[in-house]
Amino acid sequence: MFTLASPLLALLASHAPSGEPKSATFSATNEIALTPPKEAKELRAWIALPQQDAWSKVTNLEIKCPVPHRITKDSEGSSVLFIEAKAPFPEGFKVVTTFDVTRTEQKVAVDAAAAKPLTDADRTANAKYLAANQNVKIDDGIKKLSAQIVGTEKNPVKQGKLIYDWVLANIDYWVKDPANKKASPVGSSEYCLSSKTGNCTDFHSLYAALSRAAGLPTRFYYGSFFKQELDGQDTDQSYHCWLEILAPGVGWIPIDVAIADIFVGDFALTKENETLVKRTTAAGYTKADAAMVDYYYGNLEERRVLWSLGRDLVLDPAPKSGAVNALPKALIEIDGAVSAEKTGWTRKLTYKQKS
Hints:
Elements: H1 7-13, E1 23-34, E2 42-48, E3 56-64, E4 69-73, E5 79-86, E6 94-104, E7 106-107, H2 120-125, H3 140-150, H4 156-170, E8 172-173, H5 189-195, E9 197-198, H6 200-213, E10 218-225, E11 240-247, E12 251-255, H7 257-262, H8 274-280, H9 290-295, E13 299-300, E14 304-309, E15 330-334, E16 337-338, E17 345-353
Parallel strand pairs: 8-9
Antiparallel strand pairs: 1-6, 1-17, 2-5, 2-15, 3-6, 4-5, 7-13, 10-11, 10-14, 11-12, 15-16
Helix pairs in contact: 3-6, 4-6, 5-6
């Protein structure tokens, strides 16, 4: 058991955010370019839209689309743009969404002393955040590993931090060594554990498997960074994934163990990894930073936009290809079959900071 003098408790006690949360406003353009094959007869698309939550205000949303479209909701309540078109398709087929978003930094006082163990009622109310997903496996091996990591600890704040520290100590972000490491294409807890590497969704899939196995409700968020060095440039911002865990008495705690791993500092910048590493973070990277590692257990910077929540999504109308692993960008179906990104379509998210 941890005592009042333990390093972990001291760290958590010092983790209360200082100062007012930062905020920033961005003007963004999200462009989906579609290239259906000549023989295609039908195209259906579900495109992620910017979401509003307690930290994000979306204004001036405009959608330019040359075919019939409407906004629907997925099974997590996120707004999704649905498009349905028959051949012949428009030349230069593009769907362009423009919007402004003001994002406020999330800062949670992660106070272990305020946390309470989860009750059966808490677990019942958050059952879907304790369940496995298609790519978040909770098998006997994960349960055993989670139990080893958490030990006898019952405090959910401390449990979450123990898992956070274990992931940082055992998994390396693939961009640190791109010649020898790679990410999975689906965000897989099994891949991340077996390969000891991955991207943001791999990291958070493994974290979610371990935390859910420990009885901590854990939910997924998908969005994008507004990367500081790409402000105003004609370069896609890609996507990013993060989590929240529930600690009664404290609330939902935001976690980004993947980006925290970049700042652990167990690697050197090289000509092979430098650009990848810098563009993985919101505001670049120059060196190891223990304060940033600490920051991402309870805090998220303001340079983000939210696209969707959750895994194994059910869309409206239902895709012929079935439930959706996640929706950080779009799902495109051509004649009922999934069209792969970069071959059947591309996404380009660009932005300019306004304030």
